[in-house]
Design brief:
There is one protein chain. The chain has 315 residues and is mostly helical. The chain has 2 domains: 234 residues; 68 residues, Arc Repressor Mutant, subunit A (Orthogonal Bundle). 77% of the residues lie in helices and 0% in strands. α1 runs parallel beside α9, α2 packs antiparallel against α3 and α6 runs antiparallel to α8.
Length: 315
Amino acid sequence: MWIKILAYIVTFIVSAGISALGIMLAYQQYQQNKKPIFTTLLYQQIFLFSFLFYGVWGNISLRMVIADLNIGEALSAKLAVFIPIIGIPFMVVSWFMLLKFANNCNGRRLTKTFIFTFFPTFVVLAFALVFLIQKEYIYVPENADLFVVRILVVLNLVVHLFFLLPFFRKTKDAGLLKESGLDKNQVLIVFAATLLYSCVMFFFNRFGYISTCIALVVLFASNLVLPAIIRLNNQTTPENGNMDFQSFCSFYEISKREAEIIQEICSGKSNKAIADKLFITLQTVKDHNHRIFTKTGVKSRVQLANLVREKTGEN
């Protein structure tokens, strides 16, 4: 008995530390970059670990409390399942933030149709599931909380598949993707971590408290992968004001001609003046401007000049 309690205490401490680390990493990215995508990542981590803590540890704590109460086993199981179900909105919001983050990284915005249908979809799914269970079209095993876990695992996998998609489509904003530091291989690592804990969670409490503790550590640790990768990527990126112009061009994959145009823009020249100085057509300058804006993630000449000053410290 004491070994079981000690195992849960250690697992609780480890999961609490992982949760704090995940939120801290996301917060550091937000503080360092002040970009909307990192605000989204921070919210995603907060809602995700809030659900994990509330849903998982709420369930375990409640089971320990009601184990000593003189109530029926059926009622005990229902109460234990009820706690994580209440916390599901936290998970749904974290899924929304994850999809928003993936799309924003690639210069896309979630459509209004998606935003207004995302949350109602899960409400409809919940009512449909309850209806099917009541009509006995879906068999619920005796271990009802494991049944709920498996449903959430499947939904989570589906959401993470949609998380992958924006990174495998043509990006609309290479600058934002550069800021996040994510590439296709890294988002596949994130998905692999999701697959790992999904497989482990299918055996949640199957073999008693030992498998439960292992599953929980894997679950919390796997959700740390995304902010950890982004943090590691950004550690290799020079801080604002520490780049020279050549490093700036290298980081954003700016060509030699584009670099010349950036310098002229920063000096305040108009497109016409740049075309005359570089002996190219006005349309060519505009085409270069478009590519530069796409690579750096800015929307205007003023934003570009500000970005160069911010990154290089040059006036």
